[in-house]
Specification:
Length: 136
């Protein structure tokens, strides 16, 4: 009589290596998804802060005095860097040829301090009533 082969207990080396490879691929995809979510959260936070700071900056531009024509730059209190470019626009002339308003174009670029080239740009055209006293 032939001896009965013992029933196998456990897995062969090939089966174990295959299972390990499948597990490694699954975990790498899972970690990549979590890492991508963290990057997206950081980008969303930057865009939110930049939009809030930039809108406030552009809203106050030219309200209390003449706009600062040319290039200026600085840093907000939360660490974001900004660069502002203001160029004069056209004068609005009323009846009789007297100027009644002036305009200017403002372009604000906000960047992260990390320096990876991530930037947020806001642009606005503002109209301001012509000030007779300032023009003299």
């Amino acid at each position: 009589m032939r001896a009965r082969l013992k029933s196998r207990l456990g897995f062969s080396l090939i089966e174990s290596l295959t299972a390990f490879a499948i597990l490694a691929m699954t975990l790498s995809q899972l970690l990549e998804g979590v890492g991508g979510g963290a990057r997206n959260e950081a980008r969303a936070d930057f865009l939110f802060r930049a939009a809030r700071q930039g809108a406030s900056h552009l809203d106050t531009l030219g309200v209390e005095g003449p706009p600062p024509f040319g290039e200026t730059s600085g840093r907000y209190s939360d660490g974001l860097y900004w660069s502002l470019s203001v160029t004069p626009g056209q004068r609005v002339v009323g009846i009789g040829g007297a100027p009644i308003a002036t305009s200017f174009h403002a372009r604000l670029v906000i960047t992260k301090p990390s320096g990876f080239g991530e930037a947020f740009t806001l642009s606005a055209v503002k109209i301001r009533a012509y000030d007779q006293q300032a023009s003299k």
